[in-house]
Amino acid sequence: MTATDHLSVVRCQWCSADPLYQQYHDQEWGVPCYEADNLFEMLMLEGFQAGLSWITVLRKRAHYRTLYRNFDVQFMATQSDEQLQALLLDTGIIRNRLKVYGARRNAQAWLKLSEQHDPVTWLWQFVGGQTQINHFAGLRDIPAKTAEAEAMSKALKKAGFTFVGPTICYAFMQATGMVMDHTQDCFRYPALAKES
């Protein structure tokens, strides 16, 4: 796709003209993800996003990857309080104490979950193991949460995770292709709406 194509294509209404946002929308959002490391990263990023715009998180993503060693779960789970306090001074991330400490807690919960289940299969169970294809006409039709997201949220909280409310879980499901919410006018819709 050329630069000119980028200007002319129709995208989901939530996607701004920011090239970083467009790249994320075009290449990542709504594409089924079955890699445990990527699912963990997205779950963490969605939690960091709570109360903020997604573009804020995207702009900080590269720095998060550096600090967290590409979201190395073991590293994140064993960070000391001193290391977390140092993170709170880093302007390259979202400096919210609950989110910074919550990331360690979530990494610990992920490791514990992984001892008992394959986290990929466990997370995908909430959509029956395959992408739920939606056919929404516009942004106003897309829900903020669903019964499946409610169930995922409840299970994640029970497993010890934080920043995993139903709205965050639904955004996570959209981002990782557990649900396909590109709207019908979006250029990505035809390819991703094909029933598998």
Automatic annotation (TrEMBL):
SUPFAM superfamilies: DNA-glycosylase
Metal-binding among keywords: yes
GO MF terms, alphabetically ordered: DNA-3-methyladenine glycosylase activity; metal ion binding
Keywords linked to the UniProt accession: DNA damage, DNA repair, Hydrolase, Metal-binding, Zinc
Pfam families: Adenine_glyco
Listed InterPro entries: Adenine_glyco, DNA-3mA_glycosylase, DNA_glycosylase, Tag
Annotated Gene3D superfamilies: Hypothetical protein, domain 2
Protein's UniProt keywords contain Zinc: yes
PANTHER family xref list: DNA-3-METHYLADENINE GLYCOSYLASE 1, DNA-3-METHYLADENINE GLYCOSYLASE I
Name assigned to this protein: DNA-3-methyladenine glycosylase I
Species of origin: marine sediment metagenome
Species classification: unclassified sequences, metagenomes, ecological metagenomes
